[in-house]
Amino acid sequence: MATPSPSVLVLNSGSSSLKASLRDGAGGRLWQEQRAWDGGDGSRAMESLLEDWLAPVIAAADPAPTLVAHRIVHGGASFTRPTRLSPAVLRELEALVPLAPLHNGPALQAIAWLQQWLAAHPLADEAAIPQWACFDTGFHASLSPAAFTYALPAAWRDQGLRRFGFHGLNHQHVAETVARLHPGARRVISCHLGAGCSLAAIAIAADGTARSIDTTMGFTPLEGLVMASRSGSVDPGLLLQLLRQGISAEELDHGLNHASGLRGLSELSGDMRELRTAADQGHAGALLAIAVFRHRLLQGIGAMAASLGGVTVIALTGGIGEHDDALLEELRERLDWLQPLVLLRVAADEEGLMARQCLAAMAS
User: Fold this and answer.
1) Which of 44, 230, 329, 331 has the greatest number of beta carbons closer than 10 A?
2) Chain segment 144-163, per-residue pLDDT in tens
């Protein structure tokens, strides 16, 4: 009897949505859906969604998935490659939740539910279908000390306060895609532009191996570019001024993460599609938001090019990167000085990369 082809169930948990995907052994998509959930209701809302929606999908899968892969946004300094989940690993991941609570927390909720479901399900158990984690910070483990170190007092740096970088799974996917499409490309800037935005300066070796040289996000996913509702980089002195005025840490957190970025600039929306429509009608806030977004993006691209010592390919990915035609033309015009340059779009596919990485790790 022929051995069935391996399949991987990939879960990508966020603060308000859960994406589930079933992938074949090469990372190809067999099935994929995304559902919203109310993060404000905590684990109960996540558990209800998984029980009502995902449990029937897993039960109907034939053959059952070989493994489950979870996207974990923040792996800290310890987790840099696909890791099989164990009680000890989960305890370490719990300690990292404060660094990325909107993403790490829901991911751990999904892991806990799935542990119980797999143990109780008549068709499979946890031993037969192991759970693995892939980390958005992992690709950036190759950053040099010059790139990941903040100029802070040693006592602070000794606490592990350093730059980690994020969106690494998709940045790595972009790099591998560029290496396949343009074998001669050695210096690549990956532009992940969506609700969250980051750049990665990537060096590609002759054998296609990709290495992150620099990136715009830092200790948390708040640093760097303007995003849908996140501020990106802000002068720390400005934040100190707000604290001196009496704003609480919680208010500061909410303002920077949920009320800033495109939403805060436009006072209209954090959705670039809505802002483009409003800008065409002369909406001042939308025009300002787009202008600031573009200015910061161009600054960041220039910085990444400097870190690489030049650039061959700039790849746009994510919801804005893949679909905003106006931005593509604006970049084509404003980056003419970087010739010769290939400017292209790459569809995001973190799930395919995760499936391939976990299957390879499990087989090694």
Assistant:
1) 230
2) 999 999 999 999 999 999 99
